[in-house]
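Hi all, posting the design record for the shared folder.

TITLE: backbone redesign
STEP: 1 of 1
STRUCTURE INPUT:
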C-alpha cells in the first residue's frame, strides 16, 4: 500500500510539473488577481459611462442640427 501511495504521489508531482496551470494557486495570488479584475471592471464601467454620455451628447447635437436645418 505504501508503494502505491509513493508511486501515486510521484506521478502527481510529475503531472503538476508538466502542467503548471493545474497546480493550486496560493490564496494571496488568488486575492491579488481578484483585486486586479475588480480594478479592470471599475475602469470598464467608467469608460462605459463616459461613452454613454458622449452618445447622448451626439444624439442631442444631431437633433439640434436636424431641427435647425428644416
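Okay, here is what came back for every position:
SEQUENCE:
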Amino acid at each position: 500500500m505504501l508503494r502505491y501511495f509513493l508511486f501515486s504521489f510521484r506521478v502527481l508531482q510529475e503531472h503538476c510539473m508538466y502542467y503548471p496551470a493545474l497546480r493550486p494557486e496560493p490564496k494571496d495570488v488568488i486575492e491579488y488577481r481578484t483585486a486586479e479584475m475588480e480594478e479592470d471592471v471599475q475602469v470598464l464601467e467608467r469608460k462605459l459611462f463616459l461613452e454613454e454620455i458622449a452618445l447622448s451628447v451626439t444624439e442631442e447635437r444631431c437633433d439640434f442640427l436636424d431641427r435647425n436645418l428644416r
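COMMENT: The radius of gyration is 28 Å.
Let me know if anyone wants the other runs.
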